[in-house]
Design brief:
Layout (H helix, E strand, L loop, with lengths): L6 E6 L6 H10 L3 E5 L5 H18 L4 E5 L9 E2 L3 E4 L4 E5 L3 E2 L4 E3 L3 H4 L7 E4 L4 E9 L2 E6 L3 E4 L4 E2 L12 H13 L3 E4 L5 H11 L4 E6 L2 H5 L1 H7 L2 E5 H7 L5 H15 L3 E4 L14 H13 L3 E4 L1 H4 L4 H16 L20 H16 L3 E5 L4 H9 L5 E5 L2 H6 L6 E5 L6 H14 L7 E7 L8 E8 L6
Parallel strand pairs: 1-2, 1-18, 2-3, 3-14, 4-7, 6-8, 14-15, 15-16, 16-17, 17-18, 19-20, 19-22, 20-21
Antiparallel strand pairs: 5-12, 6-11, 9-10, 9-13, 10-11, 22-23
Length: 474
């Protein structure tokens, strides 16, 4: 039983792909598994997916899985000796080519990028370790000046901060990976390199409702149209790796806070990711700064925090998960945490009956110190609304839909359960009683029950009942 609200996402890789290790990290606290399509081979990922579903069956708890698409990777070409040495202030030709034997040129095998470069454009190379600035352009001839000295090796990444590149967020590889991920039944697709709402629309058309979309915010151009991207997405990830390359370091914490707040306002779950406990790739314990980083994300109200290399290739995957679990619990024990603060509603929001019910449930849970809120939901909307409103009690989301139950595993405070739909009021009370006891509730403790009447019809949350465990007629 997870005695916390914020969820833990773990990236699966060589260090964690075996069935036994998957079970270990699950038991240590993982709620959502990330399949990194940049590195995983399809046959191995299929085996991982099978193992996760076997764990799900064994523990009788729905688990979410998302496939993280690689997205377009803009890289330099190849050099004659495998590398060139950039000298500070020296000038280099930018060539539209896959390789070059010149030591005063940088090949870029992406004509769509080269075509839009203008004087003043900054190119960050090798995850921001090196930087060049376009000094002049005369037709196809482009000259850039090195802003930093260092060795530039073959096939290193290129970032162009502040530029929206004329490139689709989905490459041919992504389309193949997407088809595979949908075939094995992932619950979410994480879309990399989102620059504009049109990127999300393109992915939604391809997915066709077979999975939900997580938009990764890692480009300044995405931040510029953040509200529209969030509106089209089912969840959002603050991907601080590329975001930290594209933006000034001092801007990243501010952007994280802004993205989390905007998602909270929209009622969309948000994952904070990258370098959270990075030292635990090797070390058995995190740095104090890393512990503070995780705690900050929880304080801000993130729905989930993510481990990347720590569980994919690290030496201590279960320890990394267990320590993240401890940090979250310690932070949530502070009542001043903004994680409990209700997300602001937009001034022009049109409140529905369902909104009124979940807002009331939040207040009742706080006043009466209720043990659980039991939300009967066919599509997941009741549990999602209640999660947005941040009640001071766990949300048991009872749904007859297996895919909905798995998707809800990502949401703050939600404990999804797959169960048969209710048919009448006594059934509603009786099942809520059973579910509360199964989750650790004791006789006499209060619970709140939310449902829609007539039962079995989606989108009709209009009923709220306060009950006590063990006394379904109270």
């Amino acid at each position: 039983m997870r005695n916390r609200f914020c969820k833990i996402v773990a990236t699966i890789g060589p260090a964690s792909a075996s069935p036994s290790m998957l079970r270990l990290i699950h038991d240590a606290g993982v709620d959502v598994f990330r399949l990194n399509m940049s590195h995983g081979q399809h046959d191995k990922l299929r085996a991982v997916m099978t193992s996760i579903r076997e764990i799900e069956e064994a523990v009788k708890t729905p688990l979410a899985v998302f496939a993280d698409l690689q997205g377009p990777k803009i890289r330099t070409g190849a050099f004659a000796g495998g590398e060139i040495r950039l000298a500070y202030g020296a000038e280099y030709r930018l060539l539209t080519a896959r390789e070059t034997d010149r030591d005063d040129a940088i090949p870029i095998p992406h004509p769509e990028l080269v075509d839009i470069l203008t004087p003043g454009d900054v190119l960050k190379l090798d995850d921001g370790k090196l930087q060049i600035t376009v000094a002049e352009r005369d037709g196809a001839r482009i000259v850039a000046r090195a802003d930093t000295p260092g060795v530039l090796k073959d096939r290193k990444g290129i970032n162009v901060p502040g530029r929206r590149l004329p490139i689709s967020a989905l490459t041919e590889k992504d389309r193949e990976d997407l088809a595979f991920a949908l075939d094995i039944g992932v619950d979410y697709i994480a879309l990399s390199f989102v620059q504009h709402p049109d990127d999300v629309k393109e992915a939604k058309d391809l997915i066709g409702g077979r999975a939900r979309i997580i938009s990764k915010i890692e480009k300044p151009s995405a931040v510029d149209c953040l509200d529209d991207i969030i509106a089209l997405s089912d969840a959002v990830m603050v991907a601080r790796g590329d975001l930290g390359v594209e933006c000034a370091p001092e801007d990243v914490p501010l952007l994280q806070r802004r993205i989390v707040r905007t998602c909270r306002k929209a009622g969309k779950p948000v994952i904070v990711a990258t370098h959270m406990l990075e030292s635990m790739v090797e070390s058995i314990s995190p740095t104090r700064a890393e512990a503070s980083d995780v705690s900050t994300a929880v304080y801000q109200g993130a729905d989930a925090v993510m481990l990347s290399a720590e569980t994919a290739v690290g030496r201590h995957p279960p320890a990394a998960v267990a320590i993240m679990d401890r940090i979250i619990k310690a932070t949530e024990a502070d009542e001043a945490s903004e994680g409990y603060a209700m997300g602001e509603h937009a001034a022009d929001d049109a409140y529905t009956t369902a909104d009124a019910i979940t807002l009331s449930a939040r207040r009742i849970a706080e006043v009466l110190d209720c043990k659980f809120a039991v939300a009967y939901t066919k599509t997941g909307s009741t549990a999602r609304r209640l999660s947005r409103d941040r009640p001071h009690t766990p949300i048991i989301a009872a749904t007859p839909d297996e895919s909905v139950a798995r998707q809800l595993a990502l949401y703050w405070g939600v404990r999804p359960v797959e169960t048969e739909d209710i048919t009448h009021f006594h059934d509603m009370l009786e099942k809520a009683d059973i579910l509360a006891k199964a989750h650790g509730g004791e006789e006499g403790e209060r619970i709140i029950i939310l449902a829609g009447y007539p039962f079995g019809r989606p989108g009709k949350t209009n009923t709220l009942k306060i009950s006590r465990i063990g006394n379904i007629h109270s």
